């Protein structure tokens, strides 16, 4: 009996980490069921949405529930949980070892340092300006505006706990910076600079996940992720729009 | 002729997104390459005069197939490769144009552009779905052959 509870704990922990890191819900459910089956629970039921997980060891057993309140994107942790689950299904790990390993992943800080993320965002911005048909003089303004915008988003996320405000604030900064560059004579095409600079904020992961979840038949998860993506793009658009309205 | 600048910038953009999404460090190169190939296919097709929607579908298909290959090869979830690979195809530019036209009270153009954004997002979805279909057919065929 104690063993069974430990298995449920391992499954919930794996599911929680994956959801918090932005995995598709069908993958989360699949992973939980595989782990449960590997530990001998062949009729385990799992139901994951972006905001919570339900897990039953058997149709007639009590259901475990876990709320997911914070979601971010961390592909590294998803890969780690995936490799642990592979080892479990291969029979290499006991329940307790798996629990320990998953706990380590959950506690670990695997993210790139902030300065590196900001530099990456700046390079992404500059590159997109060129890809969308901008000219090389637009590269530098977009590079700087994109970096500033991403830094502003990271900062705003720390201060304000409301979602979408950070994106709004970041795109506001991007719009202001781009207009400043154009009026100072740095850069040629305002539109191309802004498009490139907002790209690091675009919720690409949510869009692809929403589509993949819908295709896998997870309608609730797909729609809610889609709504999140639309709201985020709206926040980005609104931030730029506010600036453009005063030009 | 493929523009060298397009090759480099699309690689940097996809790999940069890999950093933002915190992809495993030893997979960043593959993320960048997947994104680069998808974007270059799209770019060539559009340059050859194909409409952007079918071009996006083919680009997304290539991204999805390459991601499945990488996922098999490195035994990592497919999401790691296709998320950053698909990013260059996301219609951010048109979405921005649509928003800008809304602000400027030009609703005709804005609604047209929004419809295009939806079509392009659907195109990406079709491309991703295609590779899933191929993968499932292959696994089914593989297990049928074994039996």
From TrEMBL, chain A:
Signal peptide feature range: none
Keyword line: Cell membrane, Membrane, Transmembrane, Transmembrane helix
Transmembrane segments: 114-133, 139-156, 168-187, 227-246
Principal location listed in the UniProt entry: membrane
Membrane topology annotation: Multi-pass membrane protein
Subcellular location: Cell membrane
Pfam families assigned: ThrE (PF06738)
Domain spans labelled Threonine/serine exporter-like N-terminal: 10-246
Family recorded in the similarity comment: Belongs to the ThrE exporter (TC 2.A.79) family.
Name the record gives this protein: Threonine/serine exporter family protein
Automatic annotation (TrEMBL), chain B:
UniProt entry keywords in alphabetical sequence: Cell inner membrane, Cell membrane, Membrane, Transmembrane, Transmembrane helix
Protein origin, superkingdom: Bacteria
Annotated TM spans: 6-23, 28-46, 52-71, 78-96, 108-130
Ranges of residues in domain Threonine/Serine exporter ThrE: 6-134
Membrane topology: Multi-pass membrane protein
Cellular compartment(s): Cell membrane
Location, primary (coarse class): membrane
Protein family per UniProt: Belongs to the ThrE exporter (TC 2.A.79) family.
PANTHER family to which the protein is assigned, alphabetical: SUCCINATE TRANSPORTER SUBUNIT YJJB-RELATED, UPF0442 PROTEIN YJJB-RELATED
Protein name stated in the entry: Threonine/serine exporter family protein
Species of provenance: Virgibacillus halodenitrificans
């Amino acid at each position: 009996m104690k063993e069974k509870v430990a298995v449920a704990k391992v499954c919930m922990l794996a599911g929680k980490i994956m959801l918090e890191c932005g995995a598709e819900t069908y993958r989360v459910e699949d992973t939980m069921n595989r782990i449960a089956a590997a530990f001998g629970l062949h009729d385990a039921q799992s139901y994951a949405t972006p905001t919570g997980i339900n897990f039953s060891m058997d149709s007639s057993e009590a259901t475990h529930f876990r709320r997911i309140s914070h979601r971010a994107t961390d592909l590294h942790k998803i890969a780690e949980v995936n490799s642990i689950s592979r080892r479990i299904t291969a029979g290499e790990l006991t329940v307790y070892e798996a629990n320990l390993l998953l706990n380590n992943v959950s506690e670990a800080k695997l993210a790139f340092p902030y300065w590196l993320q900001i530099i990456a965002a700046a390079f992404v911005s500059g590159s997109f300006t060129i890809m969308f048909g901008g000219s090389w003089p637009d590269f530098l303004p977009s590079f700087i505006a994109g970096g500033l915008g991403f830094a502003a988003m990271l900062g705003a996320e720390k201060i304000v706990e409301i979602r979408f405000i950070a994106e709004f604030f970041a795109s506001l900064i991007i719009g202001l910076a781009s207009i400043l560059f154009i009026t100072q004579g740095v850069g040629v095409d305002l539109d191309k600079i802004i498009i490139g600079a907002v790209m690091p904020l675009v919720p690409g992961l949510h869009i692809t996940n929403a589509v993949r979840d819908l295709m896998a038949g997870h309608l609730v998860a797909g729609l809610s992720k889609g709504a999140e993506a639309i709201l985020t793009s709206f926040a980005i658009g609104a931030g730029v729009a506010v600036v453009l309205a005063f030009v | 002729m493929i523009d060298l600048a397009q090759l480099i910038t699309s690689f940097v953009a996809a790999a940069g997104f890999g950093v933002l999404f915190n992809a495993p460090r030893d997979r960043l190169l593959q993320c960048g390459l997947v994104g680069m190939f998808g974007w270059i296919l799209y770019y060539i097709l559009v340059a050859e005069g194909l409409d952007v929607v079918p071009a996006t579908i083919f680009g997304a298909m290539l991204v999805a197939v390459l991601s499945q290959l990488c996922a098999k090869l490195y035994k990592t979830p497919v999401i790691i490769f296709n998320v950053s690979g698909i990013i260059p195809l996301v219609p951010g530019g048109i979405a921005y144009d649509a928003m800008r036209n809304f602000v400027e009270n030009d609703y005709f153009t804005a609604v047209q552009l929004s419809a295009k954004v939806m079509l392009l997002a659907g195109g990406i979805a079709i491309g991703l779905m295609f590779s899933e279909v191929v993968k499932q057919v292959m696994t089914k065929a593989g297990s049928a052959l074994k039996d």
